Amino acid sequence: MTLASYPFVIPQHLHASLPAEVRSHQREAVRLLVQNRQTGHVTHDTFAHLSNYLKKGDVLILNKSRTIPAVLYTTDHIEVRLARKCSTDIWEVLSSDQSEIGDTLHFTNNVRATVIDKSKKTPLISIRFSIKGDEFYNFLYINGTPIHYEYLQDHWPLQAFQTVYSSVPGSIEMPSAGRALTWRMLAALQNKGIKIGFVSLHSGLSYFEDDRWPDPIFQPEPFSVPVETVKLIQTAKNERSNVIAVGTTVVRALESAVDTNHNLQATAGETTLHIKSNSALQVVDGLLTGFHEPEASHLDMLSAFIDKNHLLAAYEEAIRQEYLWHEFGDVNLLLPMEN
């Protein structure tokens, strides 16, 4: 059985089109579906009660990557979505135009970009900008906008696509699993004895348009796991406490930092790790994540945490209970629990 064999359909009204703070005046005002990894049992709750499911000594690992305004428009209105930074002046991008190698794209302020390559594995092209470094990022933050998919009701500002704790710019799309976390919630978790650690993974595009989704194998993402986080996790493991990843990006970063001897190491680099149902998780015990589309590779990763039948049953329950999908939607917690 594969997830693709049992597709589910997300009703149109369950695509979250507004940020929670617009819907309900509070960022943390989202719902929480908690699922026991062993039994598949589902509990419905609110995200404000997250601490009820965590124990003193548990470790919550957050992705501190910050979203950049990844959409630019040429002077003749071609949309260019940044997908991956290759060097200081070269980016892989998704273009709304059928550009060919050698073509020049013209942007405002006399900025240009030359098409230098076309991927054979993806619809992405590689372009070299006429500016780089700080000059490029100044241009990007003045002229770029965040990626908006069609289910969003309005064009929200870049700040709507940030987690409160993000600090390192680089993600093409928001690592959104922790969006509902507020400083008040994080402080309350720490007061309960729950430890907080950080990694960084700059996420790429999640969708190529026209019913095309990225394959993680062909989408390297830069990540880093600092030594402080490694020590925090090692202590938790020694004390038999749970390590909970906030987001699939955190899982990908941590599991990519495991060496051939199955030890977590402080690491920085790029990862093409594709976690699937037969992947043995070395570091992460639990996962806090959003609700994903049936075609997304994220569901492959979730099936490494829980039996696919249990996972699909929970998604069907979420649809019946009208949970909201996507970056402004509700949250799913997969956790090992005592019976």
From TrEMBL:
One of its GO terms (biological process) is tRNA queuosine(34) biosynthetic process. Gene3D superfamilies: QueA-like. Keywords: Cytoplasm, Queuosine biosynthesis, S-adenosyl-L-methionine, Transferase. It comes from Halalkalibacter okhensis. This is S-adenosylmethionine tRNA ribosyltransferase. GO terms for molecular function: S-adenosylmethionine:tRNA ribosyltransferase-isomerase activity. It comes from the Bacteria. Signal peptide: none annotated. Pfam families: Queuosine_synth. Coiled coil: none annotated.
